[in-house]
Amino acid sequence: MPQENNIKLSIVIPIYNEEPYLKKLFKELLKYFNNKSTEVIIVDDGSTDNTQKIINNFKKEKHYFFHLIINRIEVNSGKGKALQIGIKKSQGDYILLQDGDLEIDTKDSSEMYQMIKSNKEIKCIFGSRYLSGKLKKNNYFFNNLVGKINSLIFNIFFSQSLSDVHCGLKILNRSVVEKINLTVNDFGIEIDIASQIVRNNFFIYEYGVSYYFRTKSQGKKINWIDGLKSFYYLIKARFFDNSTSTNISILYSIIYMGYVGSYFGMGLGNTLFIIIFAILGSILGIHFKILSSTVIFLLIYIGSLFGKGNGTTLSVVLFFVLGIFIARKTKKHFLNTSFSNYF
Question: Over the range 308-317, which residues count as b (16 or more CB within 10 Å of their CB) and which as e?
């Protein structure tokens, strides 16, 4: 008879050339997670320094009670790939994703775990380096700016209010992990995780954490190129990784919102309004499927029948707002029915 799984928490730690920090990391794990109901899964992503030797020596330690699992990827494949491997190996009711570079305090990891397991309504918590009054050390303006811009774009695209989508510290309930299918292999994995969680209608809670930024000379891996690539992953996650019905809704909304834009301005200004409204339509199409969008479009058309000149423009805007309101109510009404895919 197979033994019942008694693992409550799986800690997945991707590492790459983290030799200077590993011994301290192990001490932190002993301090906050040293129990038999925890497993620590370290995935070495093709390190070329003494990382592999150090983590193998951890198994010789006599004072740890958690289950220690070490995986090795022979060729460096990216943080995302390492996380995917670690998550697939995990057995716990909760999966804690934590970087191995100690930029985030392990004490905060423990606090997030205590929080999520004590409240069954919470299914996932993201750490945030921009919340709370905890200790921070960060003198890299550009990285900080890109992180905040990406979070803003993510919030617009996915109707969220996250302050730090890129924070590497996250804890997920097993039910969340079973719903997502991660495919991004590099640092874009943070956007991949967040977008799939939102798509599956899980609410993301945030918890303020301490942050001790490392410089490139101290082993910082992420750079400005990763920052630019993150914009690509945001576009991909929002406008391409969708169901067929959502993609049709996006196209449909682009067309009718372009029609709305045609009521504004003249000449070149009119063209710019059409483009701007078409972009807004692409975002609307994400949140409203065909029938909801048809409600909005119908009311816009009715509005266009009233008034002349600026009066028509005002009427179109008012009926557009009314259409959004009615579409939201309609969508909410059909949310948990067999018609939800159409609204």
Answer: eeeeebebbe
What token pair was written down for 178? 């079973």
* DSSP for residue 264: S
Point out which residues pair with 170 in neighbouring strands: 97, 126
List the Cα angle 136/158/253 in 5-degree steps: 150
Angstrom distance (rounded) from CA 222 to CA 80 = 13
Place of tokens 């299914």: 123
3-class SS of residue 13: strand
pTM of model > 0.85: no
Contacts of 237 (CB under 8 A, 6+ apart): 157, 191, 192, 195
Eight-state DSSP code of residue 113 = H
Q: pLDDT tens digits for the chain (343 residues)?
A: 334 569 999 999 999 999 999 999 999 999 999 999 999 999 999 999 999 999 999 988 888 999 999 999 999 999 999 999 999 999 999 999 999 988 899 999 999 999 999 999 999 999 999 887 787 776 666 777 788 888 999 998 888 999 999 999 999 999 999 999 999 998 889 999 999 999 888 999 999 999 887 766 665 666 667 767 888 888 888 888 877 778 888 888 888 888 878 877 677 778 888 888 888 888 888 778 888 888 888 888 888 788 676 677 788 788 888 988 898 888 887 777 766 666 6
- Per-residue DSSP letters for 27-72? HHHHHHH-STTEEEEEEEES--SSHHHHHHHHTT-SS--SEEEEEE
Structure tokens at 227: 């920052």
Cβ pair 73, 44 in contact under 8 A: yes
**Which residues, including other chains, have CB under 8 Å from residue 38's CB and lie 6 or more apart?**
7, 8, 9, 10, 11, 66, 67, 92
Secondary structure in 3-state letters for 202-218: CCCEEEECCEECCCHHH
39, 46 Cβ separation under 8 angstroms: no
Q: Is residue 131 a contact partner of residue 208, using CB atoms and an 8 Å limit?
A: yes
As a whole number of Å, the CA-based R_g of the chain is 24
Beta carbons of 293 and 253 less than 8 angstroms apart: yes
Q: How far apart are CA 22 and CA 62, in angstroms?
A: 17
